[in-house]
Amino acid sequence: MKKKDQAYHEQKHLLPRWLRSLWHSKTGLLGFFIVAVVVICAVFAPQIAPYPPNEMHPIDMLKPPAFSAGGSAKYLLGTDNLGYDILSRLIYGARVSLVIGVLSVVVAGVIGTLFGLIAGYYGGILDSIIMRITDAFHSIPRTLLALVAVSMMSGGLVTLIIVIGVTGWITYARLIRSEVLSLRQREFVKAAITIGTPDWQIIWKHIMPNVFSSFVVVSTLAVAASILAETSLSFLGLGINPPDISWGFMLSTGRNYLATHWWVATWPGLALTITVLGIMFLGNWLRDYLDPHNQGL
Amino acid sequence: MTKKAMALLMVAAMVLALAACGGSASSSAAPASSAAPASSDAPASSEAPAANPADQFADGVLVIGTGSDLLSTDPANQNQTNSQDLFHMIGSQMFHRDLDFNIIPDLCVSYEQTDDVTWEFKIREGVKFNNGEDLTAEDVAFSYDRLINDTALVGHSYYTAFESTEVVDDYTIRVKTVAPRPDMLTLVSMSESTILPKDYVEANGIEAYMRQPVTSGMYQLTEWVPDDHYTIVPNPDYYGENKATWNEVVYRPIPESSTRVSELLTGGVDVIYNVPVNEWERVGSGETHIDYGETSRVMLMVTRLTEGTVTSDPKVRQAIEMAIDKTTICEQLLQGAGTPTRTRVGSAVPGFNTDLFGDAADLYDPEGAKALLAEAGYNPGDITVTLTSPSGRYLMDTEMSQMIAAYLEAVGIHVNLELVDSTVMGNMFNEKTNKELFLIGLSDAQYDGCYPLAHYGDKARVAGQTDYDNPKVQELYQQALVELDPEKKEALEREIQAIAADERPHICIAQLKAAFGVNNGLEIHPRMDSNGMADEITIAK
Amino acid sequence: MLRYFLKRIGQMIPVLLIITLIVFLLVNVAGDPTANMLPLDAPPEAREALREAMGLNRPLAVQYVDYLGDVLRGDFGTSYRSNLPAFELAMERIPVSLKLAGTALLFALIMAIPLGIFSAQFANSPFDLVVSGISVLGRAMPNFWVGIMLILLFAVHLKWFPVSGAATASSLVLPALTLAIQSASQIIPLVRSNMLSIMNEDYIRTARSKGLRESLIICTHAFKNALVPVVTIVALELPGLIGGALITETVFAWPGLGQFLIQAINNKDMAVVQVCIFLIAVITLAANLLADLVYCLIDPRIRYD
User: Which residues of chain A does B419 touch, with a Cβ-Cβ cutoff of 8 Å?
Assistant: First the structure.
């Protein structure tokens, strides 16, 4: 291209493209902000939290939040039934909720992508078998599967990550499979096969990069789903164990206090809802941003 | 357009049909559901509180909210509190226990122990099952033989004590035991020993019995809609002198504890067992109140004494007990629903050692604990123990384990807290995979000191779990097992408890109280064994 | 088309087999089913005897083949606890869950369809944003929280409805509402986006240019077409409302399949757990097939060869 045409086409902008798009989408911005706050809480918990999360204050059990009658600035959001400061536990809880959310998605992603790739790329009987297996898993509600699995083992962080991860693989398998199927028909892939490029190279260099954007979008929403799954499991008593803290655990133990000491369950409930909301908003924005039809923006 | 309309109509029809067919199916499955308990109907009954709350019980209908449904209606194949209660009320056993744990005759009119291992019981005449059959010694033999021979029954494990039965005549039965059993009368008063109708069960199978139990006791089961409710009404042909207090008792299983409390507060149920501590204030005001009762459940830590574990050192165990402030746990955490204890035996059980209960049981001395640990050669932070605890199975168990962990940390013992669910806890206990400390709440349905003391005296039983091996204790235990003189037996049992308290195969924390949520129109007279007979709930004066 | 559906039904068979395998493995791989059946203090010999009597000591493969054989004959085993056939026990519960699911779906549609249509009509207005916000919120809130809050507000405080159980018609309202809120949150965005895309279609513009009133256009043309994917959503939400209502049924003590299943899991009543999962899976598969059928009938452009 001639130099002046180039200059015309490459308008200079102050901010990178994604930031501009984020700014335009109000909900996306809100989502980004929320997720950023949660991540900061998770990473910098020891610096931000007023108390260590497992420090009991037995004399101050069940104190109301600072703005309520009987509350004090000592415990901004109040204390729970064991005398723990709720605000500190909320901040530390972000860690576990995020860890479970992200790592279980990694587990699901790895398993699902593997199966999806095999099914889509090799086709034939492998494809049929894998598709029937996904149908079988799909017909059993995820919470139920996770519930039965966790009830067999003792709870705990690792068990949860594995179980929630393993029960979520089918979304990825189906997504990757359909992407691979359509990509396989594309000329450049057919060409690569003809000239004898090894399979793994085709997959790695040609197929994976094209699958990337859908993968990212699905993953953000999957993180939200994992966080909610952990909450349900905690409700049924099968979630993480102390001294680990998660919002789901706080909500589950606090639910019996809803009528008498509303703050014990309400703060973690809000934290959960807002975080999931934020992730969903972010995911929606990402989907629009990465949509190939919108690339012209 | 027509196709679309058709499809839409199809869907609408589907949705409506679901709601309708679900409705008609459920009403055909429960024919009397339209006569559902009056007090769970429209809340009108609780809108205008009667001047005297006792008036609402003039119709003699009582509604109880329980935490779980009946699991099995085969008396020999169950061990849940609610089915035990049920069979005590609808079935006949040789004896019953009253509120003060005294044995009172039910079916049995007289008995005689002809030798160390042979007992002869004479039963009442004229007792009928509610299908018209007479209850004779044949039925007793049938029921007991089943417990002796069928190893798949849950109740069988108690009746390995019996060797055989012999029908002497229509109203006399002889039972031979394997070894002398001082707890014989207990064994024949348990709900598992409910007498079954031989002819009926042989003709129709136990499954038919389980669908509609054929019984002979004070009440009878008229209706069971699983997960919804089960109802008992008085047996008009009951043989006993005491008549049933209530015209109808309805049990409603409500698993979610906050929902159960809400039902009590709105008048949907009249009584609930085990009110959670934080709800005591709410339940204690308004139209309801709380009645407390002692139980025989003791929260304790099973300690591993196996060679090589850090808790095999008696000084460490002593330091652990001294580190824990049992009084604060009982008063702050349990809000008074617990009493410190150093023995596994419940306070109302024969053979209980009173020196190990109450204030004397709190050895709280954190400085002393630290000194003891130093004496044993440990600096703060040297020791790490794993504390395994169930979560949500016993009153405040999760919180208690966290408090214990905090107390131990305060004297320099590092704690890995492992919370497990009920089933995993059961597995660990049975498979003896417990680690250094294992928090559990054990109770005693046998009203016999020997039963809990098996954990100290039966070497085979404790092998692999605590590995407690004190030959003197084992000897005392074997003696107590066959000692037929109650006073001598209790003396032996007290001695065992004193030794065990100092050697600490179990570190006991507190004996729990039960809290019952009761409508103001009623009073409850709680039992120590955490079983509950409907007739112990009476209308308030 | 018939051929397509026969093929689909044929495909269901290996799926069902795989489901039985998943269910079997899940339930038999870890833990001892006899753990909760005997008192904690029972001697080990009693426990061993029980395991033998239940056939739990045989190799897994043998147990599975046995299980499969029974299933094919319609025998799903006996509930260890109550000694009654697990299949019958589960089937008894299904109508109760269906009643709740059906009512929840009805509530969800009553809420979602008008809200979806109006937010499409007034797209990007404050109304639209509020509705969007509410529907995202409905997906993000844990359903037991919603349930408990509804109980506290409407049953305890206002005393309009009973707290729990299935005794009267009004007991249906709160649990159905709890489930409906979640379903509606899924349905609203769908209705909205469908209405939006249809309203921009040519034939609508034609109708507008002919001078027809906007409301008439909405009611006659757009409405019917927008509903098409909703139809499939209804068929697809159904299994979620039955099998996924585990938590709601527990909170409200609703005696349906969900609560039955939770109790069975807690009590390690394996036969019941297996049959419940199996039934839920079958219902889901059937619902999916039905959704495809309805979709096919409605939209003549869809044809599967």
Answer: 155, 241-242
